[in-house]
Amino acid sequence: MSSTMRRRFLGAGLASLIALGLAWSGLSTVASDWWLARDDAVITFSHARNLIEFGTVGVSPGDRVEGFSSPLQFLLSAGLLAVHDFGFDSLSLVILAVSLAITGAMTFVFYDGVSRRAGLGARAVPLVTALATVVFLAGITSHWTVIGWVASGMENAPALALLVAVAATYPLLRRGGIWPVVPSLALGLLAITRVEFAAFLAPLLVLFVLELRESAPDAHTRTAPTVTRVQARRVRMVAGLAPALGLIATVHVARRLHFGAWLPNTAVVQDRFDGPWQLLLLVSLSGTMTAAVVLVRGRTGSNLRWIVIGLGALSIIGYSWMSTHDLTAMSTRQLLDVPGDFPGLALALGLGVVLTWLQGRIGRVDRSTLAVLWALLFIPVAQFLVMGRARMEPFRVLSLALPIALLWLGVCVVGLSAVALARDGDRSNDSRRALAGGLAGAVWLVVLGAGLSGLVLDRPRDLPWNIAGYTTIEQAAARFRDANLSSTSLPIVANPDLGKLSFQKEVLMVDLGLLGDPLLTDLWKKDPNLAIEYVVRIARPDVLELHGGWSCSYRGLFSAEFLDAYRPTNDRWTRGTELNRGCPFGGRYIVWELNATEEHVLTRRISEDPDPVTLITRSLSGCAASGADPLRCQPVRRAVQRSIVDLQRRGRWDAAIDAFRASPTASLDEELLRRQPGWSSRAAREISSILRGG
């Protein structure tokens, strides 16, 4: 290994340690409850654990639902859980540590390449690279909007690492052999970081194609016949595109086959891409951004100057609009997060535009790198523009957009430093070098000042979706199981907070928040009252919890029949929770427990009976002959559902489901028990027909 390669490996390793050290020095001073393992993050972990333990992707044993939006985070979690039984806190920290280490290493690789392409001398490259790397890592770790969300357990930690990795490895497309595979894999992994990211990659894919077509042929083919050179180009194209496109296609086809739907339930719940205008907007934005990055990458200075100035102005206008748009619909907490964040990003982009223009006048501009950064910036911006208000949270957009803007500023400073440090012996260039050096120094001060301002202005605060009360529900479910069921039975629990409660796999979830329950989602979209009737008459949970605005959404649940069948279990725990005026019980956090019935006795008997299928068959025969109510055998179905783990362990699960051919709702029961791809839409039609007559 050459000394240059050793220096790069050492530098990348040190950068990884610096990234980990800076992040931990900031996070360790903040209460872990403010950032570690948000409930939305644990939702993904819960799905992964379900796959490892029960063979299906869902939130409960036997379930099949994609209530998360990050395939890559899911795959990482599943891989880690396959080798060790991590808790959700430790799982979140492992993924964070690996992602930060990769971010640090890729930042060093990125600036090392930028410094060498800028024409810096051999002695200046290590110094400038180290300085740019440290300043960038300090900048992203000093802003809570960035590091808080990156550390939250969400998908932004691997997303940040891959954004930097794509920018750092992009120049490998110009090399021969299998080197293009590296940036292609980085691009493919970035595309599956979130489901919708694959739709935002048009500019990057176009850049990849252009770079591969224009890259120099391998040394041994330069003098070879034309046909050989054509073959070499084809090899480069395949190596540069196949891994990315193959990975994207494999993941999305696998999702389609397993769930029976192209969109995750999280998108269905929030009405994402439910109209042709959104598709038109995405195509228009992708086309516009593709044209922009191609022009930025162009060879003429005039194209670069005017396109970058135009895009810079548009970005300032766009981000300023984002910071003020629809503020009346945002909560006070969201409003507190907005000031200084979006305008700060606009300032960074505006400064980058000015510096790029000045650098183009006094030195060279790394057009390819600039084009890649523009294309990468499109990804977090497009999330908001296409996906709507769900991406308005500054954490969601800025945790990825701010680092890209800082990378861009670093590229400008490296380019200016190359001009300032040039030694061509021409004294007439002294004024130009002095100007470049002054600008570079001024920008370093601005970036450092922005980092310090983050410590003062962007102070730590509790991130969204910290679910503190899930242990109360767990305790209620455990008490119910111990009092009314067997040790192998799983109580049915309904509440609107899905992640941490479902991670242990000790309950069957009915997600009143809809993300993890596609059946309830389909019914809610048909008619909220239909969904509520499903909860009361078909799901009929053993333990149910509602609070805040959810109490208002499900106000129809609290009928006289419900109050007769359920009793509150945590009257003393309601103090200090959110109160919603006009909501049932003031929106207080209340856990309700179902009174014990014959179906709970049947659940216990199924676990104790050496021949549970015969017991289930007799029970179905009895309920089928007991009256005309089409739902009269649902208690038996729920008893079998609670016994899923025990029946699967004994190899009797399929036989138990076959027994439901005698049920008056046989087709519905099979959908609810087998949960094959597309089960929720079929079950929703059955339930609508039963409860509404069509």
Q: Can you put this structure into words, describing what you see?
A:
The chain is mainly α. The protein has 31 helices and 5 strands. It has a 5-stranded mixed β-sheet with strand order 2-1-3-5-4. Strand 1, helix 20 (499-503) and strand 2 form a beta-alpha-beta unit. Helix 4 (88-117) runs parallel beside helix 7. Residues 325-340 have low confidence and may be disordered.
Brief digest:
The protein has 694 residues and is mostly helical. The protein has helices at 3-27, 39-54, 71-83, 88-117, 124-142, 144-150, 156-169, 181-191, 202-214, 226-259, 265-269, 276-296, 301-324, 332-337, 342-362, 367-387, 394-420, 430-457, 470-484, 499-503, 518-526, 528-539, 548-553, 560-565, 598-608, 612-624, 634-642, 644-649, 653-658, 666-674, 679-692, and strands spanning 492-495, 508-511, 543-546, 566-568, 590-594.
Reconstruct the topology from this structure.
Layout: H1 3-27, H2 39-54, H3 71-83, H4 88-117, H5 124-142, H6 144-150, H7 156-169, H8 181-191, H9 202-214, H10 226-259, H11 265-269, H12 276-296, H13 301-324, H14 332-337, H15 342-362, H16 367-387, H17 394-420, H18 430-457, H19 470-484, E1 492-495, H20 499-503, E2 508-511, H21 518-526, H22 528-539, E3 543-546, H23 548-553, H24 560-565, E4 566-568, E5 590-594, H25 598-608, H26 612-624, H27 634-642, H28 644-649, H29 653-658, H30 666-674, H31 679-692
Parallel strand pairs: 1-2, 1-3
Antiparallel strand pairs: 3-5, 4-5
